[in-house]
Every structure is written in C-alpha cells, then in structure tokens.
Predict the 3D structure of the following.
Amino acid sequence: MLILKKNDIPSSEITPKQDYLNRRAFMAGAAAAGLAAVAGTRGLRGMLHPAGVEAAEKLNTIKSPLSTTGEPLTPLEDITHYNNFYEFGVNKDDPAKNAGSLHTRPWAVKVEGLVNKPRTFDIDDLLKLRPMEERVYRFRCVEAWSMVIPWAGYSLSELIKQCDPQSSAKFVQFISLADQKQEPLPWSAGIQWPYSEGLRMDEAMHPLTLLTFGLYGEVLPNQDGAPVRVIVPWKYGFKSAKSIVKIRFVKNQPNTTWNDMASNEYGFYSNVNPNHDHPRWSQKRERRIGFPIWKQMQPTLMFNGYGDQVASLYQGMDLNKYY
Amino acid sequence: MKQRWIVALKVLAHAACFGPVAWLLWRLYLSLTSDPQALGPDPTHTVTFFTGRGTLRLLMVTLAVTPVRRLIPRLSWLVRFRRMLGLYAFFYACLHLMTYVWLYAGFSWSAMVDDISQRRFITAGLTAWLLLLPLALTSTAWSIRKLGGKNWNRLHWLTYFAALAGVIHYWWGVKKGVLTPTAITVVFVVLMLARPVLARRSAPGKGSPARIAVG
C-alpha cells in the first residue's frame, strides 16, 4: 500500500479546499518544470485526480441550514482515496486508480415509471435545475468507518416535484451506470450489475435527501460517484447510490444490490442504528477517517445523528425487523 | 551447515521478522508527530490488517519448514529456525489482539464479551490466539525435556488448528465479494497436503534429523 506524505494541514483550517487548489496550481507549474518536481510531495496524486474530468469545475454553492455543524471535515485526500465503488475494484484505493475511464459527459438521467412527467435530463440541465447548496453531512459506511463531507447539491424532492409522481408510486429506485467500456465491473465482487438502490417515497422526499453533484465546492471526482449521485445521510453509505443513470418511480419495494447479495446482513432500510448489529460486526462504534489512530473510534449515533429530522418516518416500525 | 552461517542467517531472519513491526512503529511515530496521514486514512484498519496478515504469513512460513525439509533434506537445518518463526507469529498475533482490545473494544469487558459471543469471526480469531498461547509457553528446550519429545510434538500439532482458525477468521471478517484471503488459503491448503504427501516420500530414519526444534 502506498502511503504518501500529506502536507501538515489541520482540518480546522479555513478552507482545506484551498490547499487542493494550491496543489493544482503547483501542478501547472510542475508540468513546465518537469517530472522531478512532480515526483515530490503530493504532485503524483494530483496527476491522478480529478480522474478523467477535463478540469474540476467549481460549483457556486450557498450555505444551507440543513448542514451539520461542529465536526471537523474529512480531508479531501481521504474522501477521494478511500472509496467503496466496486464497479472499479473492491479495494479502497481501486476507485481512485481506475475511475479515470469514467466519462461524465455526455450524461443523462432518465426518469421513468409511475410519473406524469417522465423525462430524460441532461446532466447540465440537472446542474441548473435548482440553486446548488453546500450540505455538510456525516457519512457512515456499514463497514463502521465514517467521514464528514461538504457535499454540493439540492434536495431530491425538488427533482421529484418536477416529475410529478403518481399516487401509486410508493418507492423510488436508483440505477447506477454499468458499462463495461468505462468500468472494469470485476466479477469477483459477486455483484449483479447494474447497482440498484431505493428509498421509500417519504424518505426520497425528505429535505435531507440530497441529489448530489459535488463536494468541497467542485464537481464530484469520478471515484466519488460522478457526475450525480444521491446522499441519504441517516442511512449506511451503500444506500447513497453513485453515478446515477436512471430514477424509477415504482409501486413495490425495489430490489437493492446489497440486499440481494446478503439479505441477512444488508436490509432495505439500513438506517444507521447502533442498537442493531451487523451479523458479523458491531455497529456501536465507528472509525472516523483521517483521524489519528487513538482518536478514531467514536460512538455511532442513532440515524447517524439525524434522528431529530427523520425518526418520525419510522414511528411504530420495529427497526430490528426492518433493518 | 556451519554454525557461523546459522547465526548470520538468524540475524537476517530476526531483521526480516521484526522489520515490518519496526516500520509500523516508525509510521506510528510519524503519524503522532509530523504526518497525521502516515498510517493511511484509516489507521486502525491499517494496523489491524497489517498485524493480522503478518501473523498468518509467519504461521505459514513456520508450517512450511517441515515440508521443505522433507523435500530437500539438505535444508534440514531449517528446523533450527522454526521456534523463532513460531514465536514471531505469536508476537504478531499478540499485537493483532491488542489492536482489538485497545482500539476496537476500548478495554471494555462488556464489549469484548459481546463480540466474542456474537461475532463469529472474533470467536475464531480468539480461538486461534488461545491455541497459539500454549505453543509459545512451551517453546523452550526445558519444556521439550519436561514433556518429552513425543508429547511435545503432539501438543504442537495445535499449530495446524491455530492456522486453520486464523484463515477462517480472515474469511469471516471480510465483506462479501472481497477475495483477499484466497492467497493465504491456497498456501495453507498446499502446506497441509504437502505433509502427508512428502512423508510417504522420505521413509523414517533416512537422512532427516530430529524433528524437534533446537536453537
């Protein structure tokens, strides 16, 4: 495993993103100066990122009252080099290495199913549909690691309202890209592609559910699910589908990939719940990424700390049964 | 094999076995001082897998000594390295256990009891460590004398079960779709099959010195 040195920047600093921009300026100079300059610090990483996209476009975002405050942001380096994106390989560093083959233009998201206004949106239309907000959310993987990420996007409900779902539509399904020409799609992952996820209608309409286009004020790096994904912060990370190509409104609970893989381990709801352990490991604690080793372990919060906003959706539901 | 060469090789073997731990300690030091990322984005995970893989690899090397000696009788002197290798495997296993007790369980008894009783991969892992413990405790020449060669050998068959428990622990711990334990599993299976196969080749008393570890 290659562990490169990181410049010593405490995460409490004003804009860690600034460091990222400085690195890119460094890269421009380094290209002229030659490989020797690049081979130093993080120059090599800078070349690999952003993978495939022409240049990381800035997104103008406004601050949102729905952002989570009081927690240090996870460094961009970690958000872009510690990923589960099995289409590009099952190791944490595979997506950063392999996602360069993903082409985010042209990109279309087809909205279909039980809607009165089915439509295919071009990604550039989606980017302009509503004002872009910066939403800082906790992100909790089912593997018991977590991050705090400043996403950029708008509530999925804005898109849903535009599509005018029929009353018979009880669930929303997300289908991710599965294209052998752009993605290795390793058979060893044991996954039936394309990746499929879903939400109940009220979960999809919840203001916290974010149709996401960027992070740290710039478009999503390929390995983080470019060019558009959904973020559902109170659920385990695998519910937050990446690189979405289809949004379907359906009557019945859709099949979801990890539930199909191991239904006793990964449920449909998958709300973050320290009281319901994964069959093979405990969910009471999590490892915060980017922290020093003795500070990593933290207690896991019910609904990932978003209980105030979402607990009411599950009133009366036995969350040990509907995990 | 000349004694001088054995000593030199032992020094190298110590370096090879302890080297990775020294490297890990150095990265830990860096992460505490100049470079918070020196152990990667998920240092707990890094250290856990580093020590766990080290344990399994050293166990396999230890288990490889006898098959290699039977295959190449000229390398019989390798038996004098077996104790050192086995103890290093136990050392790595202890480090691995410590990462669990300290980092994952936070020294909490209730957390550990909960995990051991409910998380089967932890049960398997603890079993492996418990099987190695008596082997480490009886690794001295004194123990061999006290137990007698035959009993000592039989006790040390626990190595096979410890390695098996370790491999199972690895498979049960990784997420579905992850096939990383395959390589070490193949090595283990080959080593286990090699023993009976090679035993039939070298008849007893033919050029193979005492199987008991000395030195």
Notes: The longest helix of chain B spans residues 3-32. The interface with chain A takes residues 27-28, 31-32, 34-47, 103-104, 106, 111, 114-115, 118-121, 172-173, 175-179 of chain B (CB under 8 Å).
